[in-house]
């Protein structure tokens, strides 16, 4: 389990974290649910710096939608992050292709999948939502739309990512094993896949969410995971709450995971219980597969209570409100 010192050391933003009030590291499973808004939560340890950015909007009374977009742009821009945005690892043919989606309090949503050459897919997803009659654009069409909207077309394959890809090509083993967390952040671990999913509630009590990723490293060209799929990687219902996911997208898609979590909360499940039930359905359907993969869900309800649950240990999420910036370790199944 993380402790505070270890977390500060391992974070990409370790230096700046000293300034944050990491007041408590706790197992979400044992803590009382927090109620109160505004609040922002997001997946993995890099969520803490992303939340900090989102918080700048929330604390000024801004809209949750603006907060989540601004927040997830931080890992998208992080050159040390090979699982989200600009420096993401490429597919097996060397293309960096990104997936993202966003959803607001009115049920509006936008998404891009397998978009190339654009560093901030979340902002393109938002424009799909706001400027087109559609929900989702993919591949070249998504890139074309982004360029029309003024986004810069860039080569996103960084020298480091290219080196990792060339190393992978030596064996070209197509083994989409992801998120076995004890191997995460290890040097040379090319199968490190951390999506950022973020959920926020603003001062008006409105909920929005965003999710962005480069997906599975060295994936098949054209492969799309759960992250840009509304209902799978992200779902928001302003009457109930929001949910997002990380891990092996195929299993999340098969179970329409984030929608399921929100519907369970509608039935009265707490955020953590809803995440746990969604995880258990994945395990129940494919117990052998589930032993070797990670899937984690993160959820928040209308009151600002939050929770998470993952198949494997090692999943973390970050919470930020007026009082704290915490990294939390959710409950896990007993694999
Ligand atoms: C995907 N769900 O593309 C993403 C990857 C991920 O933590 O979330 N990794 O399947």
UniProtKB/TrEMBL annotation:
Where does the signal sequence lie? Answer: 1-28
Annotated protein name in UniProt: Glycosylasparaginase
Q: Which GO terms describe its molecular function?
A: hydrolase activity, acting on carbon-nitrogen (but not peptide) bonds, in linear amides
What cellular component terms from Gene Ontology apply here?
Answer: cytoplasm
Q: Which InterPro entries match?
A: Ntn_hydrolases_N, Peptidase_T2, TAT_signal, TAT_signal_bac_arc
What are the UniProt keywords, alphabetically? Signal
Q: Which organism is it from?
A: Mucilaginibacter xinganensis
Superkingdom classification of source: Bacteria
Residues annotated as coiled-coil are none
> Per the record, where is site Cleavage?
194-195
**Positions annotated as active site in the UniProt record:** 195 (nucleophile)
Positions with a binding annotation for substrate: 223-226, 246-249
């Amino acid at each position: 389990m993380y402790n505070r010192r270890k977390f500060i050391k391992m974070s990409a933003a370790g230096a700046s974290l000293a300034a944050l009030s990491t007041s408590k590291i706790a197992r979400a499973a044992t803590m009382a649910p927090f109620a109160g808004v505004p609040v922002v939560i997001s997946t993995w340890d890099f969520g803490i710096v992303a939340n900090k950015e989102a918080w700048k909007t929330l604390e000024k009374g801004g809209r949750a939608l603006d907060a989540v977009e601004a927040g997830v742009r931080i890992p998208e821009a992080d050159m040390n992050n090979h699982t989200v945005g600009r420096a993401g690892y490429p597919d097996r043919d060397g293309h960096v292709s990104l997936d993202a989606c966003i959803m607001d309090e009115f049920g509006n949503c936008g998404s891009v999948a397998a978009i190339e050459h654009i560093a901030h897919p979340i902002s393109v997803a938002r424009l799909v939502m706001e400027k087109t009659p559609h929900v989702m654009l993919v591949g070249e069409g998504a890139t074309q739309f982004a360029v029309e909207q003024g986004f810069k077309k860039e080569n996103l394959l960084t020298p480091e990512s290219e080196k990792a890809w060339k190393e992978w090509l030596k064996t070209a083993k197509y083994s989409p094993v992801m998120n076995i967390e004890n191997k995460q952040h290890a040097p040379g671990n090319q199968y490190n896949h951390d999506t950022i999913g973020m959920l926020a509630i603003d001062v008006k009590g409105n909920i929005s969410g965003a999710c962005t990723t480069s997906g599975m490293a060295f994936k098949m060209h054209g492969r799309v995971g759960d992250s840009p799929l509304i209902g799978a990687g992200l779902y928001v219902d302003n009457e109930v709450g929001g949910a997002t996911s990380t891990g092996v997208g195929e299993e999340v898609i098969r179970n329409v995971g984030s929608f399921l979590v929100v519907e369970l909360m509608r039935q009265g499940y707490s955020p953590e219980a809803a995440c746990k039930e969604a995880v258990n359905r994945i395990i129940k359907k494919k117990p052998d597969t589930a032993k070797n993969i990670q899937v984690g869900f993160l959820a928040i309800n209308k009151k600002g209570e939050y929770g998470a649950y993952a198949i494997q240990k090692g999943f973390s999420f970050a919470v930020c409100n007026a009082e704290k910036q915490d990294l939390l370790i959710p409950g896990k199944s007993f694999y």
